[in-house]
Amino acid sequence: MLLALWAAAAACTSVKVAQKDNCWVRRSERWLAGSKEEVGPCAPPEPRWSEDRLTRLMQECVARADYRWQARALDAWTRGDRLPEQTSEEKVLQQCLGEPTRAVLAENDALRGRNDALQKRLAELSSDRDLARTSEEDARRRLVGGYEKMAEKMTDYLGTAANKAQAPATATANASSDSEGTAHTESAHDASTSLAAQTTPGQPGTVVVAPAPAAGPAEPVPAVRKARARPRPAARAEAPACPPAPAAAAAAPARSEAVWAPALVAPPPAGERATAAAP
User: Fold this and answer.
1) Measuring CA to CA, how many Å separate 169 from each of 29, 194, 246, 250, 253?
2) Is there a single domain that holds both residue 24 and residue 87?
3) Domain tally for the chain?
4) Strand pairing of 23-30 and 34-42?
5) Of 148, 173, 190, the domain-final residue
6) Is 239 among the domain residues?
7) Are residues 73 and 138 in the same domain?
8) What's the pLDDT score for residue 109?
């Protein structure tokens, strides 16, 4: 009977674990026996983190030590064992004093390794820069050499073309005049030589000008009759008509100057001049 009652009482017992005021509290409620609370380990208050880096490292070290003790104490309290002894604050601070030093040394090692990597990368970049500079100088040297060779070839070509003998251009001009004072000019030249002269402007063409033929003896002027004669109207002066140049001369004119000299008519004797002037 008692065993049955005890089993029934155990079956009606409830246990709840909660955190209250940063401390763990276990509340047990039993049938016909009331409730019971047991206070377990308490967590330290939240520290005020410092902005200084070294001080922050010490605070983190102390917080880790408190967290480790709280985990061990909670495990023992859950099993119903005695809570482990907590390490004194002075001992914890003494252990954490070396934490900033170790952190600084570790950071120095990391910075040293990073510096070595950067130095190695800088050496690689320097070698790449020297290689690129050498390649650029070689390319520029080849380009300048090509320009110099091209200039030399052009100079040789122009010198050869300038020293090459050119056929002289020949042009002939004939000028004549009749008794009425009309001038006739005839010119002829070689089209091939004129074309060669045009293709090589550096060499001036040779111009051959034929002199005008000598004028023949002047024809005598007939005497004017003494009888009155009706005066003839004065003839209008007409411009001398020059025949057009040949087609070859129009296609490729040669640089020549035609010289013509009109034939001079001898003046009548003085007596005849006076007779002609009388009415």
Assistant:
1) 139, 5, 17, 15, 11
2) no
3) 2
4) antiparallel
5) 148
6) no
7) yes
8) 93
Q: 205 burial class (0-12, 13-18, 19+ CB within 10 angstroms)?
A: buried
DSSP-assigned letters across all residues of 79-116 = HT-PPPPPPPHHHHHHHHHHHHHHHHHHHHHHHHHHHH
Domain enclosing residue 124, as ranges:
51-148
Domain identity same for 56 and 104: yes
DSSP for 121-186 reads HHHHHHHHHHHHHHHHHHHHHHHHHHHHHHHHHHHHHHHHHHHS--PPP-EEEEEEE-TT--EEEE
The answer as to whether 144 is a domain residue is: yes
pLDDT score, position 206: 47
Of 9-13, 70-74, 172-176, 211-215, highest mean pLDDT:
70-74
**Domain presence at residue 91:** yes
Summarised one tens digit per residue, pLDDT across range 187-229 is 555 544 444 444 444 444 444 444 555 555 555 544 444 445 4
225 in a structural domain: no
What's the whole-model pTM score?
Answer: 0.37
